[in-house]
Amino acid sequence: MKSRKLENWVLGIGSLLAAAIWIFPLYWAFITSIRTEERVVSEGAGVIPDEFNLTSYIDVLFDTKLLNWYWNSIGTSVIITLVVIVSGMMCAYAISQMRFPGRRLLYGVVLASFMVPSQALVVTQFILMNDMGLINTWAGIILPQLIVPVVIIVYKQFFDAVPKEMREAVVLDGGGDYTLLFRIYLPLNWGITTALAIITFIMAWNQFLWPFLVITTENQMTIPVGITQVNDAFGVYYARLMSVALLGAMPVAVAYLIFQKKVTEAVMISSGVKG
Questions:
Q1: Most confidently modeled of 3-17, 105-119, 134-148?
Q2: Residues 6+ apart with CB under 8 A from 258
Q3: Segment 197-222 mean pLDDT
Q4: What's the CA gap between 238 and 198, in Å, rounded?
Q5: Which of 8, 57, 188, 190 is most buried, by the most CB atoms less than 10 A from its CB?
Q6: What is the predicted pLDDT for the residue at 275?
Q7: pLDDT the model gives residue 177
Q8: DSSP per residue over the chain, as a string?
Q9: Is 162 in contact with 227 (CB distance < 8 Å)?
Q10: Is-contact 242 25, C-beta < 8 A?
C-alpha cells in the first residue's frame, strides 16, 4: 500500500515537472509580450513579470495587417478542412464499400502518396500554380493542401470495420450510397470526423512553407507568414514578435480547448468499432 502511494507521488511530481517544462516557453512568451522593448533586453529582466504593458499588442493590431492575416488564415483553413474531410470521406467510402475496376490500385496510390514528403513537390506545385495564374490568391494557397492521404486511410479503416449487415439492411430498405454515407455512417463516426477536422485545421493554420512561397503581397499573407513581416517592419523587437505569435496561436488553442472532448470521444469510438 505504501509503495503504491509512493509510486503515485512520484508519478504526480513527474507529471507536474513535465507540465512545467512544456508550459514554460508559453509563459516566457507571454511575460515578454507584456514588457517594453527596453525591459526585454535589459539584464535585470527575470522570469517574474514586473510590469504589464500592452504597447506591443497595440502596435501589432494597428500597425500591421494582422486582421487581414487572420481573415486569410481562417478562410483558407476552413475551406481546406471542409474539402479535405468531405472528399476524403467519400473517397474512403468508395474504396471500402464499393466494387469497381482499379479499386485496389487506387488505394495503393493513396498509400504511396502518403510516403511522398510534401516538400518534394514544392517546385512542381509552384510552377503549376504560376502557370494557372494563382499566385497571390486563396486558390493558390488551398489547392496543393487538399491532398491529405491520412484522412482517407483513417476513414477506410472505419468503414472496413462497420458490419456488412448494416449496409445490407439499408440497401434492402431502398437506401443508396449517399444515404449510407451521410445518414448512417457519418453519425457513427462523428467523433472521428471532428478529430480529423481539428487536426486538418491546425495543419492548414500552421502551414508556413507553401504560403510563404506562393504569397508575395502583404494583404494576402496568412498568420505564420505575416509574423515574418512584423520582424521586417520593426526590426528585432521581441515583445512585438511574441505578441503576434501569441495572437496567431490563440484561435488554434481555443479550438482545441473547445473540441478536446470530441478528440477523446474519437479515440473511444475508433477503439470500440475495431474491437
A1: 134-148
A2: none
A3: 88
A4: 30
A5: 57
A6: 38
A7: 78
A8: -HHHHHHHHHHHHHHHHHHHHHHHHHHHHHHHHTS-HHHHTSTT--SS------HHHHHHHHHS-HHHHHHHHHHHHHHHHHHHHHHHHHHHHHHHH---TTHHHHHHHHHHHHTS-GGGGHHHHHHHHHHTT-TTSHHHHHGGG---HHHHHHHHHHHHHS-HHHHHHHHHTT--HHHIIIIIIHHHTHHHHHHHHHHHHHHHHH--HHHHHH--SGGG--HHHHHHHHHHHH-S-HHHHHHHHHHHHHHHHHHHHHHHHHHHHHHHHHHHHH-
A9: no
A10: no
Give the three cell numbers for residue 50: 514586473
Residues 171, 67 contacting (CB under 8 angstroms): no
Q: How far is CA 23 from CA 17, 18, 28, 29, 245, in A?
A: 10, 9, 9, 10, 15
Q: Which three cell numbers stand for residue 250?
A: 490563440
Grid cell for residue 214:
506562393
SS (HEC) of 143-158: HHHCCCHHHHHHHHHH
For residue 195, report the phi and psi dihedrals to the nearest 5 degrees: -65, -45
> Exposed, middle or buried: residue 242 (CB in 10 Å: 0-12, 13-18, 19+)?
buried
Query: In which band, very low, low, confident or very high, does the pLDDT at 130 lie, cut at 50, 70 and 90?
Result: very high
Confidence of residue 86 (pLDDT cuts 50, 70, 90): very high
Q: Which of 68-77, 95-104, 247-256 shows the lowest mean pLDDT across its residues?
A: 247-256
- Entry pTM: 0.81
